[in-house]
Amino acid sequence: MAFKGMLKDEDIAAALQHCAAADSFNHKEFFAKVGLAGKSTEDLKKAFYFVDQDKSGFIEEDELKLFLQTFSAGARALTDKETKAFLAAGDADGDGMIGVDEFTTLVKV
Question: What InterPro entries does UniProt report for this protein, alphabetically (predicted)?
Answer without folding.
Answer: EF-hand-dom_pair (IPR011992), EF_Hand_1_Ca_BS (IPR018247), EF_hand_dom (IPR002048), Parvalbumin (IPR008080)
